[in-house]
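ugh ok fine here u go
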Amino acid sequence: RAALEREVAARLARGESGIADGLTRDFETALITRALAHTGGRRIEAAGLLGIGRNTLTRKVQELRIDAKD
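structure:
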């Protein structure tokens, strides 16, 4: 949480706009990347860990352009 708060403060200090969208994208990318790595690329298992459906995970992998194992 402290790291997230520092990142928010840094982006505000730089005068960035669209901070929420950028941080949400960064956060989702980190969550999905870690979950897929943890499960050896098994999307159904990763989706379960994240509390989302497999189709939602697949869509987010595509939208965020995450390099995921098939």
